[in-house]
Amino acid sequence: MEALQAIATDQLLKLDLGCGKTKKAGFLGVDRRPYEGVDVVADLLEPWPWGDGTVGEIHASHVIEHFTGLQRVHIMNEMYRVLAKGGTAFIATPYWCSNRAYGDFTHQWPPVSEMWFYYLRREWRLANAPDTDISINPEGFSCDFECPTYSYGVHPQILSRHGEAQQWALTFYKEAAQDLMATVTKL
After folding, report:
1. Of 22, 58, 131, 172, whose CB is crowded by the most CB atoms within 10 A?
2. Angstrom distance (rounded) from CA 104 to CA 169
């Protein structure tokens, strides 16, 4: 319990989900394996051990891609449940058209693309994909996150070029973007 209190900021926790051996400083490290530095060993596919609205910030770098589509729904619904209103979650995954998305045999289908983040907003789901909302599908999303602005982890050889060349590469070259990153906010 002392570890939980030490990480709390303004009474809200900061979680690093799937931290492995590289826990983010100032965060409570959560992983399914008891690596050194992991504070809480937990299965993200089970109900999370934190109460509703007790978390202010979540860091989920290179963890979402290890779960199937339906498992990701559960994770985002739990993330929404534990985050306080206005709480944020930083999510980074290998970009769908990068080799990084396919090289690790523990990555699950489908790879993550920008479109996935639209489904996290209830208003968008109900207008465009109602079958993915829990009001129609009991396995659907119950979360309601602000649609994010995306950014990309750009290949170093592309990053050194001017902005117009970078944008061209991100649009047309397969390995230009290696990671997809977004911060979602609980509405």
Report:
1. 58
2. 24
Report which of 95, 90, 92, 66 is spatially closest to residue 158, judged by C-alpha positions.
95
pLDDT at 149: 81
Q: What is the CATH number of domain 2-186?
A: 3.40.50.150
The DSSP H or E segment spanning 86 is strand 83-94
Instruction: Quote the pLDDT of residue 48.
Output: 97
Question: Cα separation of 116 and 105, whole Å?
Answer: 21
Single out the residue of 95, 111, 102 nearest to residue 173, CA to CA. Answer: 95
Of 51, 64, 58, 93, which is closest to residue 181 (Cα–Cα)? 93
Domain positions in the chain: 2-186
> Do 14 and 55 form a contact (C-beta atoms < 8 A)?
yes
Tens of pLDDT, residues 127-157 = 999 999 999 999 999 999 998 788 999 999 9
Task: Please report which confidence band the pLDDT of residue 10 belongs to, taking 50, 70 and 90 as the band edges.
Answer: low
pTM as predicted = 0.90
Contact of 125 with 116, CB cutoff 8 Å: no
